[in-house]
Design a protein that fits this description.
With about 425 residues, the chain is α+β, with helices and mostly antiparallel strands. The chain is built from 15 helices and twelve strands. The protein has helices at about 1-15, 20-25, 55-70, 90-100, 115-130, 160, 165-170, 175-185, 190-210, 245-250, 285-290, 315-325, 345-350, 365-370, 375-390; strands at about 30-40, 40-45, 80, 105-110, 135-145, 220-225, 230-235, 275-285, 295-305, 335-340, 395-400, 405-415. A hairpin with a 3-residue loop joins strand 11 and strand 12.
Length: about 425
Amino acid sequence: MATERLTSILSHLTPNKSGLSAITQQNPDDVVITLAIRTPLTKGFKGGLKDTPLDFLVYTILKKVLEKSNIDPQMVEDISLGNVNNGKAAHIVRAASLAAGFPTTTAASSVNRFCSSGLKAVQDIANQISMGSIECGLAIGAESMSEGGDRLASPFHPEILKNQDAADCMQPMGQTSENVGKDFDISREAQDRYAAESFARAERAQKAGWFDDEIVPITTTVKDPKTGEEKEVTLTKDEGPRWGTTFESLSKVRPAFSQYGDRSTGGNSSQVTDGAAAILMMKRSKALAMNQPILAKFVGATVAGVAPRIMGIGPSIAIPKLLSKYNITKDDIDIIELNEAFSSMAVYCLNTLQLDHAKMNIRGGAVALGHPLGCTGARQVCTGLSEARRQRKKVLLTSMCIGTGQGMAGLFVNEMNV
């Protein structure tokens, strides 16, 4: 401990390193990830988790965390659940954590920043650790889209609606995708070609078993919609990838939001999906003392706002903002996980930021895998770190657009198999 303390003091006295060397250096006070796991992602309303309520989904992933990490649950001081659709999420995560084996001394809460909720949970736990509020915490992202969710039942107050940007916050996500396609001339063909590549990558990854080290099997109950008969099933694989999907087959799919445009379809948009992911974090010194494996270092995350009607371009603002904070460039990034809410925004961000597509969504993205809203931000960390281990690469960037016009991005450094 004395050596670690001396190292920490010297790191503060030494002139700050900049860029890549700064984010990859290791200090006792670093926030590190010791476990990153997720459930299979299943089809909303008809897949393996369609009859699994959010409370049992959260309970199950919490049980898996304790099982896989072998950590004393009393060491976990706070749990943050990223969830979008369930207004009872705060109740659920507290009750589920107690039932899963965490003591009453482990606190719990929920966060909701729409599609970035999982990453927001990671950031909140990491910030608490960094500030010394806690030493060990757990971030979860979970969503049962099969349960449905809260919708804006009526317009905002008339005073709010006098502001056009505020009024645009009510636009359906499909409409915002069509706005991006039209405003930035992203053709239906470009979107379908992008989607076909996402499906091809997911198929390749699934056939090669690349997802296996990030997925934990989930045992649950499924009800036959015709007979009502219930049976127990163990889920092990993502259900979203449709093997053999081609540009030609996607080009035949009808527009999904024809009242707004004709470029976004069920084939080139993210799938309605159920799933959960968990990220266990602590100080590096704590991980070493507890003999926990250090998978990665959390570097930081940031959020940015854009016009609500083109919310999909959010990553194109959030990513440069994050990179500038750490004095690095896109060329320093090895792996990119960009959420494919719609192919329109994915193509826009890929082209506008001039990202290397060979580094981005190597295992496919939400078009092929699905987008369980509150889960995605945590799921991307699981997938990105797994890919970084496979390739023996270091720097992972994750990002997503956010409903109502925002973008978020996170930065991580893989420390396994490098």
